[in-house]
Amino acid sequence: MAPTTDNLSPVVALAGGVGGAKFAAGLQETLPPGALTVIVNTGDDFQHWGLTICPDIDTVLYGLANVNNPETGWGRANETWDVLTETERLGGEAWFRLGDKDLALHLLRNNWLKSGATLTEITDRLRLTLDIPSRILPMCNQPVRTLVHTDEGDLPFQDYFVRRRCEPTFHGLTFVGADNAVLAPEVAESLQTAAQIIICPSNPYLSVDPILSVPGLSDLVRASAAPVVAVSPIVGGRAVKGPVAKMMREMGHLEHLPLTVVEHYAGLLDGFVIDQQDRADASRLPLPTLTTDTIMTDLPSKRRLAAEVLQFSRSLMYS
Amino acid sequence: MAPTTDNLSPVVALAGGVGGAKFAAGLQETLPPGALTVIVNTGDDFQHWGLTICPDIDTVLYGLANVNNPETGWGRANETWDVLTETERLGGEAWFRLGDKDLALHLLRNNWLKSGATLTEITDRLRLTLDIPSRILPMCNQPVRTLVHTDEGDLPFQDYFVRRRCEPTFHGLTFVGADNAVLAPEVAESLQTAAQIIICPSNPYLSVDPILSVPGLSDLVRASAAPVVAVSPIVGGRAVKGPVAKMMREMGHLEHLPLTVVEHYAGLLDGFVIDQQDRADASRLPLPTLTTDTIMTDLPSKRRLAAEVLQFSRSLMYS
Asked: Most buried of A26, A126, B35, B266 (most Cβ within 10 A)?
């Protein structure tokens, strides 16, 4: 079916961690079941305790299944910590906080990966088990690992993000393995048939760039007839969560951070969504811009923002 | 130091699962700290959820650390089951009951194995963390896997033992990989310097034979100047726990099961310990025999049996 402009048309969202998962949950609430596909960053994936951990996929899974911890944004609600407590007692590392319910998923995924299933297949199996109506697609099935260049040397993503809490000064990124990543048929097909493409309010450098680093993926976004809209992860000149604003400062961008986001996505966007606290920046932006409240504190606010962004995106189809 | 006959002399026990771990705990209570080395069956080891699980090593670790579940004999006391519950919910297999504390150890071990540590090194690290004064040695560092031949075909050990609850009729065993197993220096040294060698009341076929299948190991037991004593796993013509009597019946041994055990260990033993309920069988046994109460229900009964067996074993040094 060719893309149409009604509510049933497929919507593709590119998402990283907590902000992306929140916005994707709003889209899912707003759209008919099955209309949403979320392409998720796997650059944060890493090996821990011998298991393959996929933090962004899990944050999106838990968020869309509404079993996430609403306080932290990541991990499970009503989590227990019996394994971690005992592992620590027996001499294991505990800097990465793995709860029992969370670990259950890692164990299953790891076992299925060992049995030869792809991350795409496993993620689909999990979202169906968790009764998630949206498709969730890892950006690719090959390992792509974000390496953070800092003033303290190169740090694997989780070392930078969790262990060092983003404290080292950021110089740049390499997505190790991206050259060998292969665009999955499911990812290509979703982008080719998308009626709307939305870049979630995720960290452009850490969460969205790894997705765009998969060979051929950004070409499909550019080639799409669908409007491409990004939601700014900046609110009031700062990040809602995470290190994006700190990283921008460390790259010399001290003000007009929404413009920095737009320039970063150069050539990709048809529209941009900024927070009302940044309305002074709107006039600097060289593309159609929706200014609204982008803070998502609960399901109604996620739903409202998603509906506004979808409406704004649809309006760009006729421009 | 050459072996002497006092209480400080090194004692080596060969042990399998629950019965072996109970008796080893009694030996540890009776002997001075550091005098006991337990060589443990690894033929039951298997891969589950992508992890290497070593049931007998863990039963001995938990038993000697006094953190075992006294009701089941295996697993941890005060265990929780959050991971298993969630794994089952997410579509995973749950036939092998992995508790949270137990799983913590499997995760650590698996990770350490992946990092290149040997099972011997890992087991020693764990027993030190668990404040166990005795040495615990896996029978070897290479994978040896017990395959059970039954009237329903060949079954990997855990499939026979846990999943099928030993129901299929037993025809025999193969210890797959035993030909390539290498006697570890620690195992060899412990047997060469042992003042007493004790075969615990473990299943001769499933628990002790895999240990004896490691090339060179049974030769060291035979060559040792130390008395070798086995404690019968049979009480009143039946197994205290597990399928040993059922297996004997299926091999055509319908009565005088203590004699069957002695004949099975032909050429290895200097003495044998049978339960008082089997005293009628004592006269049939072609070697020095201690008849006593072999049921271990609590720490005092484990300690009493261990002390009696050690005294009996020492008496054989002068025979």
From this structure: A26
